[in-house]
Amino acid sequence: MGQANSSRKITAQDRAILDMKVQRDKLKAYRKRIQVVLDREHEIAKECLRNGQKDKALLALKKRKYQEQLLDKTDGQLQTLEQLTSTVEFALIQKDVLYGLQQGNTVLKQIEKEMSLERAEEIMGESEAAVARQQEISDLISRNMSNEDQDAVEEEYEALVREAAAEQRRKQGLPAEQPVPLMPNAPDTELASPEEEDAEEAAKEARAKARARERKEQLLAA
């Protein structure tokens, strides 16, 4: 009985499960290590904003969002692979699982490259080589980020602008401005009218379209 168990042949399914677990362990370790880089990129964005460098501040935020996106996407793929590798129909989907694991290893290598404070600091450089590297990063992110993620970055940037303005007012001894209400000029005791809601939605849509046009122009110019 014991000899039968010890001589059990390792199957492709066993190897796939092991590879998936190794990838998951790596991802967990990488997520902890890259947090230092993500925090630094947030600080870089704030520094660039204080220096009036909007493009660099946005690039730092985009790079940070892109890295978070890589982590979350890989985590989601590993969850899917974990389910597939444990199914009894593994033989029917073996090629798909192995391809997914290969892709996972490729993305993990990308994440590993991002875990460097030196690479984060590249955004601050002013030399010709640094500017070229910044453009390379911008092009990479533009190709791999969804419109929704780009919009989220724009909103994060606007939040940093408001935070910086509030900090400046505090330094000047002025009261911090009240947070802007979701519906402009709406009394606290009343709901916004349908007209105001339509106007706000139209403004959001216009801003999203403007950002989409800007991204399209950047891609065409690249």
Outline:
Its main location: membrane. The chain is an all-alpha fold and 222 residues long.
How would you describe this protein?
The longest helix is centred in the N-terminal third of the chain and has 39 residues, at 12-50. This protein has helices at residues 2-6, 12-50, 54-85, 90-114, 117-121, 128-144, 147-171, 194-221. With 222 residues, it is mainly alpha-helical. The chain has two domains: 10-176, no CATH class; 191-222. The protein is built from eight helices and no strands. The radius of gyration is 24 Å and the shape is elongated. Residues 179-190 have low confidence and may be disordered. Residues 164-222 are annotated as: Disordered.
Key features?
222 residues, mainly alpha, 2 domains, 8 helices, 0% strand, endosome, transport, membrane
Write the topology of this structure:
Blueprint: H1 2-6, H2 12-50, H3 54-85, H4 90-114, H5 117-121, H6 128-144, H7 147-171, H8 194-221
Subcellular location: Endosome membrane
Protein name: Vacuolar protein sorting-associated protein 20
Region (Disordered): 164-222
